[in-house]
Structures are given as structure tokens and as C-alpha cells.
Amino acid sequence: GLPLPKIFLITDPAPNAFAVGRDPQHASIALTTGIVEKLTKVELEGVIAHELAHVKNYDILLSTVVVTLLGVIVLIADWMGRASMGISPRGAKASFGQRDDNQQNNGALAIIAVIFLILAPIFARLIYLAISRQREYLADASGALLTRYPEGLAEALEKLTADRHQLRLANRATAGLYIVNPFKKTGTIIEEALSTHPPLAKRIAALRSMNL
Hints:
By secondary structure, the chain is mainly α.
């Protein structure tokens, strides 16, 4: 079993929830007043089970590690870009031909470094988003196994999808923590690709395909 996490209530009409804590012994779950008021007991149990699954699966710790590693990649890209701009031949004087060769080599390295500098943060972000989406699917499935009733979470997600309130405290840096993306979506392909969460319709379908 899991230690009972601390429960915090956030005064906000938008229905949402999230978990924090590096391990089950230091975990807390936050629920908005909106989610407590708008969901049934069974639906709320599904939501809490989903958040407990994040804690059990060490998702908060995993996210921290992934973000740190990806941040290192970005720093390396930045260092390469700066280093390439400062490359110059050293030591003995070079002939005109050698200088031309050095300049060409330095120019090629600079171009490669700039490309890496541009692409590294993009790929790092895409990797993080892909991991985040997979962990949401896993938390849905693990939460359903805890309650033995996936329909409860599926119905909760349907209500969260239909709700029109936007979380007042929402920001892009913490959007991945919530059970659903706190920002209202337009449904574009690009938006889905850059989302921290899988499409709700797919999450609901996956839950309803579970046979428990």
C-alpha cells in the first residue's frame, strides 16, 4: 500500500487536480474546489487514484530527472555555439593556404553548432512531451487498477472535457502536473503535438477498453 498523501484544496471553479512529491513518503495531492463540487464520489475516487498512480510510479521524480537531462543537452548546445564562434588558429603562423583551410573548417563547425543550437531545444522539448503523454496513459491505467473501476475516471475526464472554466493559476511551466491540461484547447494538430497530455478522447477510449 501507499502512505496516505496530504490533501490540499485550491479555491478555483475550474475542475482539476495534481500531485507533487519526489516519492510516496513525501507526496501531496491538490484538488480544486471545482473538481470536488462537480464530480460524483466515484468519479473523484478515479481522479485521486490517477494522482496516486503518479506518486506510485515516481512520475514527479522522473519528470525532474528528464527536465534536468534535457536542460544539460540545451546547455551543451549553447556551449558548442559559443565555442565555435571563438575558434581561431593557434601556435605557429600559418600560410595563406592553411589559413583558408582553417577558416573553412571553422565556418563549417560554426554552421553545425548553430544548427545544433537551434534544434537541440526543440528535440529536447518534444522528447519531454512524449514522455509526459505516456506517463498520463500509465497513470490512467494504474489508477483504474487501484479502483477496479475505469469507468469512474472515464466519466470524470468527460466532465473535465466539457467544463468551460479555465484554471486561474495555470501557467505553461506547471501544465504537465495536472490531470488535464489547464489551458483550453482548439484541437489543432500542432497543439496536440505540443501538448503535455494525450487527447482526452483517446484517454477515455483507452480506459473503456480495459477489462477489469
